[in-house]
Design a protein that fits this description.
Layout: H1 2-20, E1 27-38, E2 41-42, E3 50-51, E4 57-73, E5 80-82, E6 87-91, E7 97-104, E8 110-115, H2 119-122, E9 146-155, E10 162-170, E11 176-181, E12 191-198, E13 218-219, H3 222-232, E14 237-239
Parallel strand pairs: 1-12, 10-13
Antiparallel strand pairs: 1-2, 1-7, 3-4, 4-5, 4-6, 4-8, 4-9, 8-11, 9-10, 12-14
């Protein structure tokens, strides 16, 4: 009788031990989707009006930008996944997702990516895929890419007239890298991340843009472009 009890107890211990030794798959699937908001609402192009942080009425017509150099990190163990050829053109009326495919399994707790195109890729426009110059994001008179494009019309608060806004931000100094914490990413488990892009942040923090008071509302280079880049360097894209 005692032998039967010991045998049953040993079997139970072995079963519990095997339960704790579940093999974690070597790879896991991951994808990232982007959501665009303005004035606390889902972004829409060509019709709907939104209120900018400055209080100005704005109707967006085009919104596109590059996310590049995607890196996932476990800051405790040092495990890291760095996407190769990492250039993704995101647009409100086009692609709003990044499929990383099967990546090495790890408990990643940090996401790093950049807004724009790094200096190496930005130095040539004979590329394919999302960097194809025909994507409407390459300067047609100079080498390099537009990192972020926002176009639309606003009501000038001083004249009450409708006026155009063109933000075409590029050049190497305006390439910005963003780091975000991650939670719930577990080794071996497929994960879908959602990133929220808040267009309000393009017009505030740390630089407030009052469009009606600008000398020019075609912003491509110089001090104003640098201010927009500063604004999208923090708070513009966050993990939901």
């Amino acid at each position: 009788m005692k032998n039967l009890v010991y045998t049953a107890l040993l079997s139970s211990i072995l079963m519990c031990s095997s339960c704790n030794d579940v093999e974690v798959p070597a790879t896991m699937a991951m994808d990232i989707s982007l959501e665009h908001k303005l004035d606390g609402q889902t972004l829409e192009l060509n019709g709907k009006s939104f209120t900018l942080p400055s209080g100005e009425d704005f109707t967006p017509k085009k919104f596109k930008y590059y996310i590049s150099n995607v890196v996932l990190t476990n800051t405790q163990t040092g495990e890291m996944y760095e996407e190769m050829d990492s250039y993704h053109l995101i647009s409100e009326d086009g692609n709003k997702s990044i499929d990383l495919g099967m990546i090495p399994s790890a408990n990643y707790n940090q996401l790093t990516f950049s807004i724009g195109v790094d200096e190496v890729a930005n130095g040539k426009t004979d590329q394919t895929g999302d960097l194809d110059p025909n994507s409407d994001m390459a300067w047609n008179w100079n080498t390099g890419y537009k990192f972020l494009v926002l176009e639309g019309e606003f009501t000038n608060k001083n004249t009450t007239e409708r006026q155009g806004l063109i933000l075409h931000i590029g050049t190497n100094p305006n390439f910005q890298t963003i780091t975000q914490p991650l939670t719930g990413v577990r080794a071996g488990k497929a994960i879908s991340l959602i990133l929220a892009a808040d267009l309000d942040e393009l017009f505030k923090d740390p630089n407030t843009l009052q469009l009606s008071d600008l000398e020019s509302t075609t912003i491509m280079f110089g001090e104003m472009a640098a201010k927009v880049a500063e604004n999208y360097s923090e708070g513009f894209i966050t993990v939901k």
